[in-house]
Inverse folding.
């Protein structure tokens, strides 16, 4: 089985721009979660999608949004980028929910200048 | 919402000794407790998990214990090896709720 993939792996953007990150889950997995990882804050939950619906949401501003497609692939979008958005963005997929084993992708390293 | 505290933030042990990392959670309804290992520059990987109907689970040199009354769970690594050096994260969730992670423990194995 192919693992979770994320594109792009690295991204450099300027403050004020917007960015879209993509995540392809393991085949058959219907739950996709997104996390922001920074050295000081650990793994912060952004949101979870299941069957094209946002099921859970973390405490991030509305600039962070996401969606899931019928093939379970997911995208997250960050608008009006701020310097503090620089982080590693990880997605994780699981068969049904976060209460099942989650498999993480390699992450997208976003740098905002 | 759920809050997970993890201690210590850093831990150094001699190769061959045991390492213990502890986490406490706030939501008594939480019933799933996984542990993830993240090596430098790599993605987090599940190493062991436990559900609330079980008090202890072992997998070779790794074990996790759960105390529901005290709302804490611990990761035990015995006979540590250099490849155990990594950041370890605990987490907790209930049902379809989000997985809440602890802040991580950087474990260093001293040869």
């Amino acid at each position: 089985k192919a693992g979770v993939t994320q594109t792009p792996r690295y991204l450099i953007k300027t403050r004020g721009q917007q960015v879209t990150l993509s995540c392809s889950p393991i085949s058959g997995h219907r739950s996709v979660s997104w996390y922001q990882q920074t050295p000081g804050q650990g793994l912060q939950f952004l949101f979870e999608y299941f069957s094209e619906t946002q099921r859970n949401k973390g405490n991030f501003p509305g600039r962070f949004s996401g969606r899931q497609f019928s093939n379970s692939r997911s995208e997250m979008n960050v608008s009006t980028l701020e310097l503090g958005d620089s982080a590693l963005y990880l997605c994780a997929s699981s068969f049904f929910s976060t209460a099942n084993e989650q498999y993480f992708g390699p992450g997208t390293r976003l740098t905002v200048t | 919402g759920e809050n997970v505290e993890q201690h210590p933030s850093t831990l150094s042990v001699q190769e061959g000794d045991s390492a213990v990392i502890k986490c406490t959670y706030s939501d008594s309804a939480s019933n799933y407790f996984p542990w993830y290992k993240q090596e430098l520059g790599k993605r987090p990987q599940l190493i062991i998990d436990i559900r609330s109907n079980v008090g202890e689970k072992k997998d070779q040199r790794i074990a996790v214990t759960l105390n529901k009354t005290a709302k804490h769970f611990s990761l035990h690594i015995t006979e540590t090896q250099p490849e155990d050096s990594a950041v370890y994260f605990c987490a907790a969730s209930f049902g379809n709720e989000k997985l809440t992670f602890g802040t991580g423990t950087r474990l260093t194995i001293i040869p």
